[in-house]
Amino acid sequence: MALEKPIIIGRQGRSLSPKYTPKISPSPSEPPQNSPTSQYFVAWSLPAAGFLTLGILLAYLKLPWYGLMMWILALGLPNLILKRQYSLLILSLLVPLGYLRYHQWELKGNPLELFTQQELELEGFYDGDYFRIDDFDLPKAKVVLVSREVLPVGMLRLKGELAYPTTKRNPGGFDYQAYLKRRGVLMQLFVDELITAKPSPPSFKERLRRNITYGLNSKSAGLIQAMTLGIKDDLGDLRESFAASGLAHILALSGLHVGILIAALGFLLKPLGLRRYPLLILLILGFMALVGTSPSILRAGLMVIFALLFLWLGTGKLETWPSLALAALVSLMINPSMLFDISFQLSYLAVMGILLFSNPLSERLKGKSLGNLSWWHWKEFLLGSMVVSISAQVLSLPLVLSSFGNLPIFSPLVNVLAIPLAGFIIPLGFFAGVIGFIIPPLMSLANFINGWLLKLLIIMAELGAKLPSLSWGEIAPIGYAFYFVAVTALVLWLYGYLRPFRMLFIIAVAMMSSMASSTEKSPPEIVYLDVGQGDSSLIRLPGRIEILIDGGGTPFSSYDMGARTVLPALRALGVDELEVMVASHPDTDHIEGLVAILERFPVQTLLIGHPKGDKELFQRLVDAAERHKVKIVEVRRGEILKLKGIELHFLNPPQNPYDEDNDNSVAFVAYIQGARKTYSALFVGDMSDKVEREIAFPKVDILLAGHHGSPHSTTEAMLRATNPERAVLSYGRNNYGHPSPQVIERLKANGSSISDTHSHGAVRIALP
Fold first, then answer.
1. Is the model more confident about 558 or about 306?
2. What are phi and psi of 211, to 5 degrees?
3. DSSP string across 474-538
4. Which of 406, 399, 408 lies closest to 472 in space, CA to CA?
5. Would you state the pLDDT for residue 726?
6. Which of 185, 399, 654, 669 would bridge with 180, disulfide CB 3.0–4.6 Å?
């Protein structure tokens, strides 16, 4: 009697097709690649992360979650009941959970708030990054130290003052307070004195760092410790070179570093079979504990751990999308505020871009998926690397442009050359760090080889930084919407759901709509930037005419105000070139930042007062202008500069200079043509009351108070003559008593409305 074909019973007793042929089980050392468990896992991980994210967004926007929940239930409940599948209904409960988790995080109090703005003596442990207060008089908390001297790692007793970190103070600025709060750091401690110190013996991380950097020059040492341990304190100019060349992700520990490390370790441990998976999980956990759990490291580490765990348990290979979703789910459950961290956003958008675009793009270009390309063939390797690099940038492009104001056009090509090099440098660096504890000569040999590789990578970054880049300003929400409409059309075409003509039509409409929304004629504007205890103002006119007056500076500090504050603000505001730059006088807090601007930004003309060749900083400014072929013009009292829509009438300095540099400040009235009338704004630098008495001031609409509100400027006589409707004070934390209460009283008595950069951040005044 012939045997009947077997009937295989599936889940819930349903019979499967007799054509179904079970796959042969793999060897015990390798788990199945596509099991029902992993497929079932896909069904809940993606919507779970989506629902939790939605709840967090609703809490952030302060919208009620219950309305959305009712909509979800009304839409899906009948279908769920009829099919007896309750998983989606259960997962939708993550919406209120995400809402409550974020709300709970936002309501966390600050136990140090009562101790701000007072001199304190604090004891605690400093690990090189954060100071953990361990004092009976204060709550235990984590703060950042701000000190002019390098402080040792260990138990310290400090005298200082607690203050809140800065928020986003300028266009293109960084919300340092929110960044620290997301990492559990409450305050900054401005250190006045180190009272006692009990340095700790070098930690394992410090000893590993010494091994990794042994025998390398300063640049190579700074680079390798950033690439392996995430220590970026000694990068110097390399930070800018790598950012300008599109290689900044190599400096920030991320999935690239975890991937390279796990690939190297996996290859070494392959003979262990299944036993290698728990060992690899432990090593990844150790690596995360060593370098810290930044959003990108947490994302990459969790993805790898989940994938290894599934393989170890024999449940099948975990696909990348559910792995990514599960990593996001766990990360946001731990800290829901990370959803709004730019490193979190860039990390996930980059991976999502690779998953969405890599294979379909490769198939369109080569006729086969990325997984089938021959990596031994240099042309296919080049193509695959370019496709992955471009795919990683598609979704994150507007965020990068809006946040950093600059996108290296040739970064995919530079990455094709640099990433394989990093694939050798990172494992070799860790090998040197570990082997240095056992066989020091092998450490020296590894670092000798790595030294040459690091020099080559630095050369690539410096050459790449000189290539053209795309500059952009901050992008409005409507700009993001138009961009992702175009990206959606591209995705639908790549996956065969949209014809090419329709895809191009949608992209063209999105581009034209975006251009129409961004080309509205904006009125002239004056932006008084917050540069701390200094001055920097920008006049913006229709037709992309911009004038920068001073650039701030930080005496007795290595902080580059021009490169790190003024330049990002210019880019965020969409400034592509400065028609005029004014250096009011040689003081550091006015012109130090201008040097960085001249080195990195196109400028047509530099206006100065009387030259000061004996001032080193002023000479650096002039040298930078000459090196970049910027026209230098000396201005004098009574001269007028005319540009389209604006006239500058110079009131100072006179033909013969005063003895004091402050009194030789370039002072002028800017007459700016608005749509309704001509506005006037007065800039006086740091001139004293002695010079103010010699000048015939006209009536003005806006006044930038002289010398940051010094009592020896902005006199009653000047205020009677100018009678400004609005006054702006530019100052920061200082020991000079600026602004003087006398100046504030004078301005109030004059009836002027007062704004200041210390309280409000950048002050923006539109001139319609």
1. 306
2. -65, -45
3. PPPHHHHHHHHHHHHHHHHHHTTSS-HHHHHHHHHHHHHHHHHHH-S-PPPEEEE---SSS--EE
4. 406
5. 96
6. 185
Q: What is the 3-state secondary structure (H, E, C) of 391-421?
A: HHHHCCHHHHHHHHCEEECCHHHHHHHHHHH
pTM: 0.83
At 31 the pLDDT is: 41
Tell me how far apart the alpha carbons of residues 76 and 74 are, in angstroms, rounded to a whole number.
6
Tell me 555's DSSP state.
Answer: T
Residue 739: cis peptide before it, omega within 30 degrees of 0 = yes
Task: Please say whether the beta carbons of 582 and 548 come within 8 A.
Answer: yes
Q: Which residue has the higher pLDDT, 734 or 720?
A: 720
Residue count of the chain, please give it: 768
* Rg, Å, the chain Cα set: 30
Residue found by looking up tokens 């900083």 in the block: 617
Does the pLDDT value for residue 81 go beyond 70? no
Across the range 121-126, mean pLDDT stands at 91
If residue 672 lies in a helix (H) or strand (E), which one and from where to where? strand 667-673
Cβ(550)–Cβ(566) below 8 Å: no
Q: What is d(CA 269, CA 277) in angstroms, rounded to the nearest whole number?
A: 9
DSSP state of 15: B
pLDDT bucket at 82, cuts 50 / 70 / 90? low
pLDDT in tens, 625-683: 999 999 999 999 999 999 999 999 999 999 999 988 899 999 999 999 998 899 999 99
| CA dihedral angle for residue 46, residue 52, residue 54, residue 58, rounded to 10 degrees | 180
Looking up tokens 């520990």 gives 253
Query: Looking at the DSSP assignment, which residues form a beta bridge with residue 588?
Result: none
User: Tell me: the pLDDT tens digits for 498-536?
Assistant: 999 999 999 999 999 888 776 456 789 999 999 999 999
CB 78 within 8 A of CB 89: no
> Which residue has tokens 């900054």?
188
Distance of alpha carbon 93 from alpha carbon 82, whole angstroms = 20
CA distance 714 to 737: 15
Q: What is the 3-state secondary structure (H, E, C) of 565-594?
A: HHHHHHHHCCCCCEEEEECCCCCHHHHHHH
Check: CB of residue 294 under 8 Å from CB of residue 230. Answer: yes
Taking the C-alpha atoms of residue 67 and residue 57, their distance in angstroms, rounded to an integer, is 14
CA 319 to chain centre: 30
Q: pLDDT tens digits, residue range 217-274?
A: 999 999 999 999 988 888 888 988 998 898 988 888 888 788 888 888 888 888 888 8
| Alpha carbon separation from 598 to 405, 504, 605 (Å, rounded) | 17, 41, 10
What span, in angstroms and rounded, lies between the C-alpha atoms of 242 and 251?
8
Q: Tell me how far apart the terminal alpha carbons of the chain are, to the nearest angstrom.
A: 96
Residue 117 has pLDDT above 90, yes or no: no
Long-range contacts of 519-523 (CB under 8 A, 24+ apart): 523/674, 523/675, 523/766, 523/767, 523/768
pLDDT of residue 737: 87
Peptide bond preceding 336 in cis form (omega within 30 of 0)? no
Q: Which amino acid is at 238?
A: L
For residue 318, which amino acid is it? L
